[in-house]
Design a protein that fits this description.
The complex is a heterodimer of chains A (334) and B (500). Chain A is mostly helical. Chain A has eleven helices and two strands, in the order H-H-H-H-H-H-H-H-H-H-E-E-H. A two-stranded antiparallel ribbon of chain A has the order 1-2. The longest helix of chain A has 32 residues. Chain A is globular and about 60 Å long. Chain A starts with a helix and ends in a 15-residue tail after the last helix. With 500 residues, chain B is mostly helical. In chain B, strands 1-2 form a two-stranded antiparallel ribbon. A two-stranded antiparallel sheet of chain B has the order 3-6. Chain B has a two-stranded antiparallel sheet with strand order 4-5. The two termini of chain B are 49 Å apart. Chains A and B meet through helix 3, helix 4, helix 5 and helix 11 of A and helix 2, helix 3, strand 2 and helix 14 of B.
């Protein structure tokens, strides 16, 4: 295994980490509209992800930075080619980050409601667009011989990618509902569980369609295995949720994300961004990668930093492992 | 295509706007993290309530800032790929590495511990909670270091070779990129300027409250802490600015000649105080100068030769082929002056303030004040400033609160505009760095949306800051003073002590 293959795996891991973690905080953001009945319950939901969403989002920054460093050509083609969708995602992430921090900074109901609207939309839109983006990466896009994206915005909105978007949207919302059930007490917990069932069934239908489509067009034995794991885990998550094993349900919805994203990367390899115009113009782990020296340095850095990151991020989840409910929200501090 | 609307020009505007905007929050974040950590340390060590109230007050302002710093930082990272894809292709092998290091080492650290700090007041033992804010502070500084290493490489590329076959620059010595003198000087200069910024911010707000005789104990502490920070950071900023200037004179002679509007090389070159020139003809029409000072600043010798803009332009044409290698001279010239002017005014005001509020034993007994009294402002040992002058002092401190922020912005405009037409000095020109596939319409769209969004957020942010500044430090509850620290568990239904 050469270093650029190692980095392909590491970048896959970073995206998997990002979708696993920010997946549920996107989901919780969306649920503030679907699940919470009043301001206090919204506040409960927001507080379940309050201490961790910022750390979750850094997985994206790291995936971006690592792609820049390890596969500059991929980074350049992807980010300039998907200009408008990325712009929308960026705008959402800006408003979303500010919404978390500013919502409770003023007591007026109007102020808080506006930030809640913002939180809902800025969680929903990226949750959908990431699926569209990855659908397009797997499907391949119009890349010319200079590795420039020559398609336009509308080319990105093809049925396969849109279905991909629907999958990430429903899957993240399901993942978020399972997380909310795990992290809350009282009435909201019960409702989270029953909503998770409905979301789980919708997710299962969408995901099954998308994964089979992916497997038919791009798959091999490995991706088939990953697909089966994803499907079984999703069903297990729905089942565990039904019998009230919330920890297991969350673990399984997490495994679904891990396996599904892993499947996408497996179908991609050794390409990183296939060209639909000419297979010879596809970006691959070899023609998109950095020099061995840079990859070596980065490998050292990742080898030392990643375990530490996992260690202190896990500690955060441990510190805030306590379930919360409406009784934990001080009245003036909405 | 009209040059004013060329994708390159637009991409530069967008980059400039997002960078300057991002950098309004970064210096405050860096310095307020450390200053808040210092105040919280004082609370943990002494158990004096005023330190806890001050910690919560400055901590809140810090959080309002960091939120904006974080979200605008994401745009910075993605912009390289979105708007500067040819740049990313050409230098990603080198430039990407410090960015990835930043994310892996600094940013994860900072963002994780900030969550622990915000929500951990009643979950973590006092000392561990204190350690969290120090971790955040270390994270912000490490983050600045890696970003500045990347930027310094654009100013003075080292440790690389050109791979002609792949058509790109490749890293050969990462350690050199991290430790070259450009990087170290820039880090030193930027961090000291960041503390000057936070210090002046603290002084201004403390002065606002003291002038109204409110929250005296906390604000007295904050005023002194701010003033000391301003004075020390101001000295370090000037010192590091001087050494950074000398490095630049060697590495980017054009930038420094442009900063001085020195058109033709001179022995014993003068320092320009005011100049008005004709760029086309390559000379100044009006110039007020201090003889020999520029040579001294460049080389520690009043008679050293300093090359001028016209000489360097000729030399670069000989070296890199035909073209105009001059940056925009008026922008470079004036941004350099505004940077120094605003930064140093703030430092001088801090120096005056430190003298006026000096400690007890420097003052006659009649002028000494207790913990809960507004300090007398005394020019001499036993004579307090008259009330009108004192009022002027408090107002001045408030009005100059943003001076270092203005200086920072001009500093970045100077350092980035002065490097033009190069994106990477001597290696890659800016016009070869833009994304060829991104259309004019796309950049206009993104630039207008970013600018509008930033304007709206700026209004919201300033209003929030003003609200929390006016409110002053919070009243403490029994839980604040003695938080019942339990990690996890679900033994109580007590509301959480501190959260969004």
């Amino acid at each position: 295994m050469e270093l650029h293959d190692v980095w392909f795996v590491l970048i896959a891991v970073l995206w998997i980490g990002y979708f696993f973690l920010e997946g549920f905080d996107f989901g919780v953001g969306i649920l503030t509209k679907l699940l919470a009945r009043d301001r206090t319950e919204k506040r409960v939901l927001i507080n379940t992800i309050g201490p961790v969403w910022d750390g979750n989002e850094v997985w994206l920054l790291t995936a971006g930075g690592a792609t820049f460093a390890a596969f500059p050509e991929w980074y350049a083609t992807l980010f300039s080619g998907f200009y408008l969708p990325l712009l929308i995602i960026l705008l959402c992430l800006i408003v979303r980050g500010v919404a978390f921090e500013y919502r409770a900074k003023r007591p007026e109901e109007n102020w808080q409601r506006n930030w809640e609207h913002a939180l809902f939309w800025t969680s929903l839109i990226p949750a959908f667009l990431w699926g569209v983006a990855f659908g397009n990466i797997v499907r391949g896009v119009k890349i010319d011989k200079n590795f420039e994206y020559v398609g336009n915005f509308w080319d990105l909105l093809n049925p396969y990618a849109l279905l991909g978007g629907l999958v990430t949207l429903t899957l993240f919302t399901f993942h978020g509902a399972v997380f909310a059930a795990l992290k809350t007490v009282g009435d909201i917990r019960t409702r989270a569980r029953s909503l998770a069932l409905k979301l789980g069934l919708v997710t299962a239908v969408a995901a099954l369609g998308f994964l089979i489509w992916t497997q038919t067009n791009h798959g091999d034995g490995w991706s088939l295995a990953a697909m089966l794991v994803a499907v079984v885990a999703l069903l297990a998550a729905i089942g565990a949720n039904q019998i009230g094993r919330e920890g297991w349900a969350f673990a399984f919805s997490g495994v679904t994300i891990v396996a599904a994203v892993a499947m996408l990367f497996l179908t991609l390899f050794p390409n990183v961004m296939p060209s639909t115009l000419n297979p010879a113009w596809s970006l691959t782990v070899t023609n998109a990668s950095s020099s061995p020296y840079t990859l070596k340095i980065m490998t050292w850095c990742a080898g030392i930093a990643t375990p530490l990151v996992l260690l202190y991020q896990s500690w955060t989840y441990w510190v805030f492992r306590k379930r919360i409910g409406t009784q934990h929200i001080a009245e003036p501090a909405h | 295509m009209d040059l004013a609307l060329a994708p390159e020009t637009l991409a530069r505007w967008q980059f400039g706007i997002t960078t300057v905007y991002h950098f309004l929050f970064v210096p405050l974040t860096i310095s307020l993290a450390a200053l808040t950590a210092g105040l919280q340390t004082a609370w943990v060590r002494t158990n004096k309530e005023k330190y806890l109230r001050a910690t919560k007050f400055w901590g809140k302002l810090f959080l309002i800032n960091i939120a904006m710093g974080v979200v605008t930082g994401i745009v910075q990272e993605f912009q390289f790929g979105m708007n500067w894809s040819d740049y990313s292709r050409f230098v990603g092998d080198i430039f990407g590495a410090p960015l990835a290091f930043e994310a892996l080492i600094a940013f994860f650290f900072e963002s994780t511990f900030i969550g622990l700090w915000i929500f951990g007041w009643d979950k973590l033992p006092k000392k561990i909670h204190l350690a969290c804010i120090w971790m955040v502070s270390i994270g912000t500084i490490a983050s600045a270091y890696f970003i500045l290493a990347a930027n310094s490489w654009m100013q003075h590329p080292v440790g690389y070779k050109i791979n002609a076959q792949r058509g790109r620059a490749e890293l050969t010595d990462f350690w050199l990129v991290l430790t070259q003198n450009t990087t170290l000087n820039q880090v030193f200069h930027t961090l000291s300027a960041a503390f000057l910024t936070g210090g002046a911010f603290m002084v201004g707000i403390a002065a606002y409250h003291l002038a109204r005789k409110r929250h005296i104990a906390e604000m007295k502490t904050s005023l002194r802490l701010g003033l000391i920070t301003v004075v020390i950071a101001g000295m370090l900023t000037a010192l590091s600015g001087d050494t950074l200037g000398k490095v630049m004179f060697k590495q980017q002679p054009m930038k420094m000649a442009a900063a001085e509007a020195l058109w033709d090389g001179e022995d014993s070159a003068p320092f320009s105080v005011f100049a008005y020139g004709d760029v086309e003809k390559g000379r100044n029409t009006v110039a007020i100068e201090i003889p020999g000072l520029l040579s001294f600043l460049a080389d520690n010798d009043f008679s050293s030769h300093v090359p001028g803009i016209n000489d360097i332009n000729k030399a670069e044409q000989a070296r890199f082929g035909p073209g105009d290698y001059r940056p925009m001279i008026p922008t470079t010239y004036w941004s350099f002056r505004w940077m120094i002017g605003f930064g140093m005014s703030s430092f001088l005001l801090g120096l005056v303030g430190l003298w006026l509020t000096r400690k007890k034993f420097w003052l006659a007994p009649a002028l000494r004040t207790g913990e809960d009294e507004v300090p007398h402002l005394a020019l001499f040992k036993n004579k307090a400033l008259n009330p009108k002058l004192a009022r002027v002092y408090w107002l001045l401190a408030l009005w100059t609160l943003a001076f270092p922020l203005i200086a920072n912005s001009w500093g970045w405009i100077f350092t980035e505009m002065g490097r033009q037409p190069w994106a990477v000095y001597g290696v890659l020109q800016t016009r070869h760095a833009v994304s060829p596939g991104v259309s004019q319409g796309e950049v206009i769209t993104s630039m207008s949306i970013f600018t509008a969004l930033y304007a709206i957020l700026a209004v919201i942010e300033v209003k929030l800051l003003v609200k929390y500044i006016k409110a002053g430090p919070p009243e403490l509850t029994e839980d604040d003073l003695n938080p019942p620290t339990r990690i996890g568990g679900d033994d109580a239904d007590r509301p959480m002590a501190f959260s969004y």
